[in-house]
Design brief:
Elements (H helix, E strand, L loop, with lengths): L5 E3 L5 E4 L2 E4 L5 E4 L3 E4 L14 H7 L2 H12 L2
Antiparallel strand pairs: 1-2, 2-5, 3-4
Bound molecules: FE2/S2 (inorganic) cluster (FES).
FE2/S2 (inorganic) cluster (FES) binds next to helix 1.
């Protein structure tokens, strides 16, 4: 038996080995034939159920992330 591999990215998408066929709450079907499909976990994606990296902007707005980025900007 082969298993579908799913990897959950902390504060990011869920990476699913494709191709996938997703049934949405309204019953519609969404298909992707990519070898790895990033599924949005934050529900901010404009192409939901797929990840469009909008989760990164959310992370950037937190004070800790801003402080970390400021520290990175001063290095090098
Ligand atoms: S997890 Fe990437 S946009 Fe939602």
């Amino acid at each position: 038996m082969s298993c579908t591999r799913i990897r959950v990215v902390e504060r990011g998408p869920m990476l699913v080995d494709g191709p996938v066929e997703i049934t949405m709450p309204d019953g519609s079907q969404v298909v992707s034939d990519r070898s790895v499909v990033a599924l949005c976990m934050c529900k901010r994606s404009k192409i939901y159920p797929f990840c469009d990296t909008s989760h990164r902007a959310r992370r950037e707005r937190t004070p800790v992330a801003k402080a970390g980025r400021a520290a990175e900007d001063t290095v090098g």
